[in-house]
Amino acid sequence: MTTIAVALQAVRERIAKAARAANRPEKDITLLAISKGKPVEAIREAYRNGQRAFGESYLQEALPKLAALHDLPIEWHFVGPIQSNKTRDIAGHFSWVHGVDRGKIAQRLSGLRAGDLRALQICLQVNVSGETSKHGVGASSLRALADSVRKLPGLQLRGLMAIPAAAGDDALQHRQYKTMRSLMDELNRDGFGLDTLSMGMSRDIEAAIAEGATMLRVGSAIFGERTRTGQARQ
Ligand SMILES: *Cc1c(COP(=O)(O)O)cnc(C)c1O
After folding, report:
1. What is the average per-residue pLDDT within 130-143?
2. Considering the entire predicted model, what is its pTM?
């Protein structure tokens, strides 16, 4: 087996074990392979080993990779910060966008999503770590943003996404993930019908699953440490 095949298997085993510990069905948890900073051959290798959903963070890096992998029916997720001038390409090439945190960005994505494509699947990025991140909508503004995104054509609001404060403090991480879960529950009590909590990275798969994550964004645990472009934090 190749290094990537072995690593992917190990990640799947971590997920299965954490799901059992949390008494959750494993099928409720989707593994997203974050391939930023990694070459096309690494993505093909993960695909050969059964991985179907991949995430990229940097549009300029992602576009040529998506083109080179055109022959594979990969589900592409954009997980990086979104600038207005990137919305056209994001709306044109991706199935999911995880970092939406402003109404203006959502409106642009909606306007630019071609009518013949399936609706763009959206997660709203929530700033659960307080002032440590400049990205993400604050918890107090989430409801208003969710309300406006829900009404936009060409988009389907699926859930919430978080990049928690740096690892090292397990209790803090659990608390932040728990907050995400209750924010989603609150919206669902008001009929939003959200089904996706995008949280958990290589280091904190277990904490995220314990607190209800449905989509894990895992990079280095599958592909190895990044040396070039990829920084995990925004
Ligand atoms: C890079 C990145 C990840 C993956 O991080 P790892 O620690 O390598 O698993 C997840 N989410 C986002 C938004 C990222 O930018």
Report:
1. 85
2. 0.95
